[in-house]
Structures are given as structure tokens and as C-alpha cells.
Amino acid sequence: MKQLFFASMAILLMGAMGCNKFLNEQPQTEIGETEFWRSEADIQSGMAAIYDGFQDCFGNDYVLWGDARTDEVWRNQYGVDDHVLNALSATSSGTSWANFYEVINRANVAIKNIPLVKAKYVPGMDQAVLNHYLSQAYGARAFAYYWIVRLWGAAPLWTAPYENINEDPDRPRTEAAVILDTVYADLQKAVALSDPKSGNVFEITTGALYAMLMDVSMWKKDYGSALQSFDKLMALNKYSIEPTATWKNLFIDPRSTKGAIWSLDWDWTVDGGASISALIGAGDTNSDFAVEDSVWNYFTQHPMDIRGAQTIDFDVTNHDKFNKFYPKSVGKQVYPNHKEANVLFPLYRLADLFLLRAEIANQQNDPATALQYLNIIHERAGLTAYFATDFPSKATMENAILEERKLELYMEAKRWFDLVRTGKVVEVMDPVLKARQALRMSPEIGFGDKRKILWPINRNVLNANIKLEQNPPY
């Protein structure tokens, strides 16, 4: 992907990255539609740049944002305390939104210029093909803002490219609710433009858009809309739960499965190694993180759960190798060197949505349907089905669903957002953090200030925009 990006788009989309003023929010576009955006090949290069931007977003920070602050991992001796002890600061890893704003600007450029290709240069271009490219750009912008809102809350809102150097590049933060409304509107536009028959698992397809709409609706606690999006996704008749025997293919070969909805492509020979490998397991370095004891104990005590041995390496005594994203070679688990690591980041897959469907049913006081969808995933893991009597209340069912999500979606950047979305950050993390603080012989304050659920804004981002204010209490 990077070959195509650098060949055609480096100047177009990254012209002002050398200027610190624009680095953290809006790099200025140097080449406009008069010099680029003249052919379908140009559009394809623009789309490659957008997906390349997501590689920059998730290559290192995927697990930092979604897993490192949870009860899934503990730090190895080579890691730092920032994430696992709720000790984030404005200089901690993962606190910059700069890469997301790169994606947003590239999407804004594409949204402006894709229609001009047909209008000015290629009048015979199939409108449906053009619309599908445009759909991906709207979807990418929405997805980037959705991550920003969930991590930092309010943020500067840009829905057009920054092209005029005389325009003030500094913008204050827009309320999170307003940005979420923009996200939802973008996704609805994207669905209307998309072609259900086009795309593959490494692109923003109609199915990926419905998955995003469902996810955003769950975040907003709009369970009716979430259910509608789920039903529309299932009506595409493209997806099904991956069989037990081939569960690992969801992570190492998503093209071969009907359970993967959207994964991020990676080829180390052109993209470089995925930096996340140094955090979770590489052949030439120690990991920053280790498996949390509760997860290790569960999987070792439940060997019938097929996810355990395909998620963490039981043969590593310090518990710091996560094998979920790596294939075996001749029956042996092999870890690539960090500069040669491919990680095909799963962004949405059907099991994720089935468990959200179970949550919807539980919220709508339909325990039978909640149990049905919970058991589909639980039994697929090789476990005995739950009975209705196992969950005497709505609360116990919710906890079971969230626990299943923790195990099924382990290290897939979901757990932190599940805890935030359901209001369980303090309930779950307070005892975990107190135990960790006791190990450090530190005051056992637990999670502490609830305002720390939001992440701090990176110091460089703040310095680049005088109109920004830090999230309290950082």
C-alpha cells in the first residue's frame, strides 16, 4: 500500500507536515485538483493514502488505546506504568491524535475532489464506481472521528480540507456530541453511496459501514438504531460465524473467512513491520505487556476453550507473548522480528456484532434472544451452552456478555471501550488497580479521578494549537 501512496500522494497530502503548526491537526494540501485528481488511478492513490493513514494510526497504538488500560494486560519488566496504572500524562505513548487528523484531511481532500474527476476529466466514468470510492472516504472520516471522540472527547472539527495558508489553522474543540452527530451523518451518506457488491475485507464496504453504524449507536445507547444496522448487515447475506476449527483465520487470513468484516491490510515488505509486535510479541525483542493473571488463569483452567492457545502462548513462562495475530510454521508458533511483522488488525468482525446484538436484547428486556447470541459465540469457542437460569438478572447477563467479549475479542482494541460504553470502568478497574498499586507499595487509590477516563492530549498537539485546552485533571 505504501508504494502506491508514496508514488502518487506524498506531495499531495503531506506537503506541510514539515511545518509544526499543521502537524497535529491539518497539514496543508500543496497540490489541488488542477494537478492531481484527474483519473481513476488518482482516486485509487488517494484511497491508498487514506488506508495508509490508518496503518499509521493503529500500527503501534491499537492495543494502547483499546487494551492497555484494562484488566487484559499487565506490564512486563520492559514496559512502563503509564497505561496499566492509570498514570497517563501528556507525554505518554498514544496521547497524540495527529495520525487521525492525517486520515481526516486525506478523506476531506478525497471528498472534495472525487466528484470532480468525472465532472471535469473522465465523464465516462461509471457513477456507481465513483460513488463507492466516495463512500469509503466518508466512512474513513467518520471512523477517525469516532476514535478521537471515544479517546479524547471534544476535538477540533474539520469537514473540508485545509488548503488556504491564510486561513487560521487553529480551531477550538467541538463538543463530542456534535462530532458524533457528524460521524453518524457521514456513515449514512457512505451507506447511500456504497455498492454492496464491491470491495473486500481490507476496504470500507457496505458491511463495514453497517458495523460502524451499529457501534456508534451502541455508544450513544440508541439500541433501536443499533438493531436496525445489525439487521441490515445480516440482510446482505455476506457474513457468517467462522467455524471453531478455523477461528484463527479471522486474524491471519481474513480474506478466507465470512466472519471478518473489516481488517487492516499489512505487508511488511512495503509497509515496514507493525510496531505493535514489540508490545505483544516479536522474535527479536521482549514485549512491553504480559497477560493479566485473571486471563491467564482462565485460559489455562479451561483448555477446552479453543481461543486460549490461539491467543496467548502457554509455553512462555513470563506470559508476554500474544500469538493471536501470528500463524504457525510447521506446527510451531513462530514470532517474526519486529521489522518484519505483519498484523492484520481486525477492526470489525461478526462475533463482535453478535455479542453487541446480545447486549441490545438484554437492554430491551429480551433475555431469550440475549442468551441465543451469547451462546453462539460461547459454544463456538468449544464451551458448554449457558442456561437461562445462569443469569437471574439483567445485570448478570450483561456481565456475562462483557466477559465473553473480553475473551473473544482479547487484544482487539475493544475492552476499554466496552468498559467506558457500559459505565463499568471504575467498577472493573478499581480493584485491579488497587492490587497493582499494592504491588508497587503505592497508595491504593484505585482508578481515582473519573475524569481520567478520557485520555490526555499530547503536549505537542497542545503546543501546535493555542486554542486547545487540556482534558482535566491532566
From TrEMBL:
InterPro entries documented for this protein: SusD-like_N (IPR033985), SusD_RagB_dom (IPR012944), TPR-like_helical_dom_sf (IPR011990)
Residues annotated as domain RagB/SusD: 336-474
Main location: membrane
Signal peptide extent: 1-18
Protein's UniProt keywords contain Membrane: yes
Record-linked SUPFAM superfamilies: TPR-like (SSF48452)
One Pfam family of this chain: SusD_RagB
Domain SusD-like N-terminal: 21-213
Domain of life: Bacteria
Keyword annotations from UniProtKB, A to Z: Cell outer membrane, Membrane, Signal
Any GO CC annotation of this UniProt entry: cell outer membrane
Subcellular locations according to the entry: Cell outer membrane
Family: Belongs to the SusD family.
Name of this protein: RagB/SusD family nutrient uptake outer membrane protein
Organism: Arachidicoccus ginsenosidivorans
Taxonomic classification: Bacteria, Pseudomonadati, Bacteroidota, Chitinophagia, Chitinophagales
